[in-house]
Fold this sequence. Notes:
It is a single chain. Helix content is 9%, strand content 34%. By secondary structure, it is mainly β. The chain folds into 3 domains: 9-32 and 139-226, no CATH class; 34-64 and 115-128, no CATH class; 66-112, no CATH class. The strands form 5 sheets. A 4-stranded antiparallel β-sheet has the order 1-11-12-13, with no helix packed on it. It has a 3-stranded mixed β-sheet with strand order 3-9-4, with no helix packed on it. A two-stranded antiparallel ribbon has the order 2-10. Strand 6 and strand 7 form a beta hairpin. It is rod-shaped, with a radius of gyration of 33 Å. The model is unreliable at 83-90 (pLDDT under 50).
Amino acid sequence: MPWGKNSNGWTKTALSGFNIAGTYTYETGERITLRSGTDANLNGDSAGDRAILNAAGQEGVGSEVCARTATLQYVSSTGVIGSSPNLCSSAPGSAAETAAIALAARTATVMYVARDPNAKYIEAGQGAVSSIGRNTFLLPAINNWDLSLFKNFRFGESKYIQVRADFFNAFNHPQYVPGSVNTVDPIATTGLTTLNQVAPLTDDFLHPSQVLSSNPRVLQLALRFNF
Length: 227
């Protein structure tokens, strides 16, 4: 900074030798995939498959579902109403068929109903088909200023002492991103399940401020001797 260039003595010492440097970073937020938290595709893993998208629903709102069941029934070759999957292996009208009908009556899930029909992200129950793509939800952006202010006190031809202050996130903008705003860290799905998982639905769902650090301002002071 051109302060005190034409001054002399203590005035020049006090006003000159200041330097200011900085970096401004703006990045769109990282994207995350909304997961149901259930084995919707019934492949037996514990990863938790993707959720269902209700395009007309309210952004940022998720909903669990409740199952609707019905008794499975059909008419056998003899006109008997039954629900046994083994009827075809028994002779029509036989005692085995009759016993199978009596023993195998059961209920099965025929649909799921969202507990909150206004939600945009809905749990995909077991056997349901997910309709949501990867990287659906956008996390907050990075809006970051890093600034440095330092002053050099020179003596001799090549020696000087530098006093400096470094401000990381100088204006203390809340920035809810994994890791640091100065690094590119992927979101570990298994580590942020309360943020992007519909079931069980928690208060953390799609609220990064409750899961991630805001990366608050950091101030660093330093004294350096250059020779």
